């Protein structure tokens, strides 16, 4: 099966989604601390659904025809005719502690592009040390006719990161340690200060 037309169509749709609308004012770069309750609420709801694993329903937040280029789960090909349960592979669903940080929001009246840093923390039991994984995510949102924002496209990629972006000090996830109140939340750099 040739997937080249599918990938070309997906690229075209993303390009159209990110292009400014004719006659619309130019896109504005928003400071991540700026309050845009519709977009920020959508990002918060999206990650709450992603973190919920099997109980989560992130697709209820997708616009009609939305593209999830990085689904949070896969169905392995076991060769069996029986249906197999999904395996959750997203950082949000698998990390014992997950934080997300909005890096940039670019918005116009109809579309918004949100860049997000996803941070997952795991405990290495042999070394009794917490380590951090990071992903870069791009979320394209579309304002619906009723005013709601819905996800038009979502993609996340694992990435290496500079030490200046690392969490310092790291949360202690060792056995018997007090866990943070919420497993999944927006990143707060002061959360782990001693």
Describe this structure in words.
It is a single chain. This protein has 194 residues and is α+β, with helices and mostly antiparallel strands. The protein has a single domain, classed as Nuclear Transport Factor 2, Chain: A (Roll). The chain has helices at residues 4-18, 37-51, 91-94; strands at residues 28-30, 62-68, 73-74, 87-88, 97-107, 111-124, 129-143, 149-158, 184-186. Strands 1, 2, 5, 6, 7, 8 and 9 form a seven-stranded mixed sheet that branches. Strands 3-4 form a two-stranded antiparallel ribbon. A hairpin with a 4-residue loop joins strand 6 and strand 7. The longest helix is centred in the first third of the chain and has 15 residues, at 4-18. 23% of the residues are buried.
Please describe the structure with a list of short key phrases separated by commas or semicolons:
single chain, seven-stranded mixed sheet, Nuclear Transport Factor 2, Chain: A, 194 residues, 3 helices, alpha+beta, two-stranded antiparallel ribbon, globular
């Amino acid at each position: 099966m040739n997937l080249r037309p599918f990938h070309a169509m997906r690229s075209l749709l993303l390009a159209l989604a990110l292009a400014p609308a004719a006659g619309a004012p130019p896109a504005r770069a928003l400071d991540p601390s700026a309050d845009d309750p519709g977009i920020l609420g959508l990002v918060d709801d999206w990650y709450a659904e992603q973190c919920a694993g099997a109980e989560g329903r992130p697709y209820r937040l997708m616009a009609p025809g939305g593209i999830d280029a990085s689904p949070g789960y896969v169905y392995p090909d076991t060769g069996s005719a029986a249906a197999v349960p999904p395996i959750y592979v997203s950082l949000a669903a698998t990390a014992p502690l997950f934080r997300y940080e909005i890096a940039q929001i670019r918005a116009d009246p109809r579309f918004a592009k949100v860049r997000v840093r996803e941070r997952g923390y795991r405990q290495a039991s042999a070394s009794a040390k917490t380590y951090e994984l990071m992903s870069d995510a791009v979320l394209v949102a579309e304002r619906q006719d009723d005013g709601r924002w819905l996800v038009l496209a979502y993609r996340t990629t694992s990435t290496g990161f500079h030490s200046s972006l690392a969490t310092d000090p790291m949360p202690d996830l060792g056995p018997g340690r007090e866990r943070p109140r919420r497993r999944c939340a927006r990143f707060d750099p002061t959360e782990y200060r001693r």
